[in-house]
Design a protein that fits this description.
The chain has 223 residues and is an alpha+beta fold. 56% of the residues lie in helices and 7% in strands. The protein has 9 helices and 4 strands. α4 packs antiparallel against α5 and α6 crosses α7. The chain is globular, with a radius of gyration of 18 Å.
Length: 223
């Protein structure tokens, strides 16, 4: 039997959190090897484990996979969370890329210069309520089904619900006008595997704080 996937990153959300979410939703137990020093990162680079000299990296099925989207696509395909045919996969990819656009803005918010944070936060709120959430609400309304694509759970649902949690951390009122999105969040959150992941003590990571930021700066030699 193959061992558990091993996730190499530092002890924070960053670009690994969507991978944690997807594995957890698929019911896959995983191990984490946290980077704690610049030397930990150097070791992975020097032994050839990081194709592009960067993390996230996931050891799975005898491979050392890098690049978040590639990792997510592999997991989604392996655990049947990627649609039944090429058309469904195209829709899932399209929705996930929209999720990724907004998620990237939220991911980078903590490292924005102090004088720019308020403006960036307002832009996130505006794009959430005027562009991204209306688009997903419209998809759910158009077919009246429980999930975004093919009436079956896919990585698009999981990554969208993860995003909804992040948005609500910024401002819980931002989902007020999107009842179908809130229903999707409740539906996915109540799946036994996701419910377990959302419990205290799981491998889910808290929002980035100043301590996590400082750790990242140290490990990745950022000024």
């Amino acid at each position: 039997m193959a061992g558990k996937p091993k996730l190499h990153y530092f002890n924070a959300r960053g670009r690994m959190e969507s991978i944690r979410w997807l594995l957890a939703a698929a019911g896959v137990e995983f191990e984490e090897k946290f980077l704690q020093t610049p030397e930990d990162l150097d070791k992975l680079v020097n032994d050839g484990s990081l194709m592009f000299q960067q993390v996230p990296m996931v050891e799975i099925d005898g491979m050392k996979l890098v690049q978040s989207r590639a990792i997510l696509n592999y997991i989604a395909t392996k655990y049947n969370l990627y649609g039944k045919d090429i058309k469904e996969r195209a829709l899932i990819d399209m929705y996930v890329e929209g999720v990724a656009d907004l998620n990237e803005m939220i991911l980078l918010l903590p490292i924005a210069p102090p004088g720019e944070k308020d403006a960036k936060l307002q832009l996130i709120k505006q794009k959430t309520t005027n562009r991204y959430f209306p688009a997903f609400e419209k998809v759910l309304k158009s077919h009246g089904q429980d999930y975004l694509v093919g009436n079956k759970l896919s990585k698009a649902d999981i990554q969208l619900v993860e995003l909804v949690y992040y948005v609500e951390e910024l401002d819980s009122s931002l989902t007020a006008n999107f009842p179908l999105l809130k229903a999707l969040k409740a539906r996915v959150s109540n799946l036994p595997t996701v419910k377990k992941f959302l419990q205290p003590g799981s491998q889910r990571k808290p929002p980035m704080d100043e301590e996590s930021l400082e750790e990242a700066r140290k490990i990745f030699r950022l000024k």
